[in-house]
Write a structure and sequence with these properties.
The structure holds 2 protein chains of 2 kinds. Chain A is mostly helical. Chain A contains 13 helices and no strands. Chain A starts with a helix and ends in a 5-residue tail after the last helix. In chain A, 33% of the residues are buried. Helices cover 25% and strands 34% of the residues of chain B. Chain B contains 9 helices and 23 strands. A 6-stranded mixed beta sheet of chain B has the order 6-7-8-3-9-10, sandwiched between helices. In chain B, strands 11, 15, 21, 22 and 23 form a 5-stranded antiparallel beta sheet that branches. A 5-stranded antiparallel beta sheet of chain B has the order 16-20-17-18-19. Chain B is elongated. Chain B starts with a strand and ends in an 8-residue tail after the last strand. The chains are: A mainly alpha, B alpha+beta. The interface between A and B is medium-sized, with 20 and 27 residues.
Amino acid sequence: MAAADARGRGGRFAAGRLLLITAALAFLTLFLALPLLAVFVQALAKGVTAYVAAVSDPMAWAAVKLTLLVAAVSVPCNLVFGVAAAWAIAKFDFRGKSALITLIDLPFAVSPVIAGLIFILIFGTRGWFGGFLRVHHIRVVFAVPGIVLATIFVTFPFIARELIPVMQSQGKDDEETALSLGATGWQTFWRVTLPNIRWGLMYGVLLCNARAMGEFGAVSVVSGHIRGLTNTMPLHVEILYNEYNYTAAFAVASLLALLALLTLAGKSFLEWRQPELRHARAQGGDRARRKYP
Amino acid sequence: MSIALRGIGKQFGEFAAVENIDLDVPTGALIALLGPSGCGKTTLLRIIAGLETPDEGQVLFDGRDATLWPIRDRNVGFVFQHYALFRHMSVFENVAFGLKVKPRRERPAAADIRRKVQSLLELVQLGWAGDRYPAQLSGGQRQRVALARALAVDPAVLLLDEPFGALDSQVRHELRRWLRRLHDELHFTSIFVTHDQQEAIEVADTIVVLNRGRIEQSGVPGEVYDLPRSAFVHRFLGQVNELPVMVRDGRAYLGPIDIGAAPAAGAANSIALIRPHEIEIGPETAGWPATVIAVRVIGPIVRLELCAEGRPANEPLEAEISRERYEAERFSTGQKVGLRFRRWQLYQGGEAAGASLAASPKSLDG
């Protein structure tokens, strides 16, 4: 009797599990896999030749290069800033700490369009530094520096936010031990702190990179949409789309998607290369991977 | 290396973590800082290590003012309660860390480092574990790795912050004895923090009892246990029974037991503290009549809960007798007995009132 009962309950649990997995998979297919697939299907709708022609267009290439350049500048900047800020917040007590935390969150709270407008206001022709910049022939707005600045602003919080909880939960014991063993501050950072946070750091860099390549709003405001000069990939996709050039639009979009997939593949490769990293993930990974709300 | 603290004080905001601490730790001593949580013992240890800077006072290392020396110049080994092993390094690399971060001029050759680390791992009985990662070791093994790592840089002082607090009691007992042996072999100065009086008594040469940021008493374990200077120390080092002192006709009484002439002033609000093994259980006719309300056999000792006549039922006295005595007399629940006290200590407002007293036969007649 009891056995049958248990079996019945086990059966119900099994059914529930199946239902949950199916629901999750269906959701993933509908909202993640299908759209991704659709991008590639649309891109190749008019055949491979049309696709190759679309992606080898010089304007498209210029957009790809600019996007990569912007990511290559803004991610390292935010990497340095993010580590420094998280280090300061997690390991030290100082006046104005909560103000700093709030400031770090600001780019998440502010709409990207406003972020773009801020830079126009500061660096635009009629902005605060407009006169100075004009005299010295420096172009910020409607040029690459403006795009980089806007991207840095928007992707500002990703790495710091990812690292703060990781560093806080790890405490100061490891660093204090290293110092007591005679290590210098630098040695402590490179040999103890950095290895401890590398998972959180990598995840933060990934998110930051994805956003840097995909940012639309803020960049759109400061870019000026000059083809071949100040168009990043998302902006280029929009222009092509507005011109009813669907194949080209989706072809460039597919490149953008490929870049994102490459970043993910790179991360998986690193994981696979270093068994000890896998170990670290099993140990503290959930913590390191806590998503930003 | 000898350590001296002179008038050390440290505030955290409004809270005074430690106040006006004077302490001398001679070279080669093994000292326990003992106290409840929040008493300032860890803060004191961190001030000695250089992990905190005191607001007042001086830290002297061999007579030299080390108050502002950074931790890396102090030559101290620090061991944390939760080991703080570098989890991305193997056990070998953890122990080698202190040697590998030395400036190139002082750094030993790779072969020497290997030899030294291996001998340290042998010393902590983990010669086989060099290639393992911290996550693959048990708590006791991890703490031994942490000790080997601290010893690798030949510290003059070893500071341990609740080193065995996170371990289960069996392993803790083993590690305590092992630490004591290690200390006796290597002769460094050690200071460890604990909230466990048993641990302090078992391991240390000197116990320093802290309460609310001040030193209550320090001395050799037996002395602190037997001659506590305050009710706090008496209560903190082991179990106690607390009885109010009654005064009638110029005589002081515990229950019906006459304990001598009443002290001059304020005897009315003084208390007597009596340890469980200081209670003598005899026939009902002798001493303070009481009823056995619970019997618990705990290995070699037997603990009895006793409700003495005239005492509230929810505040039983606790007595401990040997297993042999119990086997011979077989006290059982509900049995009527008579209590006498072999020894007690009177306190007035928390301070010891006079020397500790031993019962004379006469006082039992009361």
